[in-house]
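Why do we care about 3D structure at all? Because function follows from shape, and shape follows, mostly, from sequence. That is the central idea of this module. The next example makes it concrete: a single protein chain, its amino acid sequence, and then its structure expressed as tokens.
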Amino acid sequence: MTAVPASLPTPRRRHAAAAIVRGQRGFARWIVALLVVYVAIQGLFVLATVTAAAVPNDAIVASLQKDAEWRLWDTTDYPLDGVGHPTERFPFAGITDSFTECIALTIGVPPDPSGDSGIVRDSIAGRHLGTCSTALPAISALAAGAEPEAVYTYNRYWNGFTILPRPLLALEGVAAVRLAVGLIFLGGIVTAAIALTRRVSPWVATGLLVPLLASTNLATQPLHGFSHALSFGIMMFAVAWGVRLGRETLPAIILGASVAGAVFNFIDFLLNPPVAWALFVFAVVAARWQSRRSDSVGLRGLWGAAGASALGWIAGYSLTWVTRWMIAVATLGESAWQEILGVISTRLQGQYEDLVTPGLGQSTLRNALFWFGTIPTARFVLITAVLVVAVCVVVVLVTRRPRLLLVALAIGSPVVLVVLWLELLSNHSQIHVFFVYRAIPAAIGIAVAAAIVVLAKARPIDVVGATEAVALATATSRDRVDT
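And the structure:
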């Protein structure tokens, strides 16, 4: 990049690059840096997808066939998750999304029926063998040298995550994929918890993560829904990244957030974007507040960080979709374009088997009722969350620091992002309520963690002092009345 001359010593070049990213060398140079990062990361995405497509399909088919014989996967599209339970209103609750897992396992496996094959075209087409009920018989047919009865496509280039499962499937099969994803899942949680503990508070880490982990089926996903577990693991690493960004300038936050949104888009299967978005923004704002360790942090600064991180994340996420669509259309032509337009129209306003209730707030309400009515621990989590928030509010008022409530609103503002996403993509959020519902406990965790963040400023000694002052004033007033 011209703004960083190659003649500079390496430490000075790094310092100059960091200054550009932080917006300290002018807006024009920062825009150039943003464009360079965007182009570079999209290029890496394409390279990763093409690399995954280069893995021999014969080895993958052999592994999947062997694992089917060993019953490591089967034809059940929605096995029980062992956590939730069905109700009269939600009879499809308590299930795991193996439907998506089988699609993910077989993306890139079917040959091009037109014969117009090539590694780039194969990597973009997203051909797969369908859900578990159709994928397993199709794998058996391929293993026997026959053609599968049906081949499906995601012509909108929705297969970035294949960089992980395809090589592992070829080497060791489904078990290797699940173990690797389990490690990413656990590693992401641990990394996020450590980052929040070090830079914010261990209680904040607990308040943020426990509602999500204790009142959803996420812990079961590495076994029969690895695409969900992989997305969650990546979003947890992004939380740690957000904590790191919390101390940066607003331009650096925007750039860093755009990278987080782009990476999540590349890995995710449109599973829980509102959770990833909201948790990332919370991490940025909470870390920014805590980094100053004083009440001198302006509310304007907190809202600025919230806005910068929210805007940067959704920009990176959305522009990556647009780029992927453009690549798909350029590679596959009219079929990809028509599929993209159809899916966009459906997701924004479409109906599906009377599962979508129109109207403002209906999507959020449906997901909240699903969570509260089908997850046994939901009531305990909700009651505990309400008590924690109430205690924090009382403590702040007793210590006569009402400004901290405004701080809590700024830190907890990512809750709005959850509602915004659920309502804008009402079709997707209601049809897939059996996993989108996780956004509700995520929002509750953000609210609890925001309350805990400001409670740390209202020290216990202040609470005791304020309580004693109130008691003394009450006793004095009684003495005066008695006199």
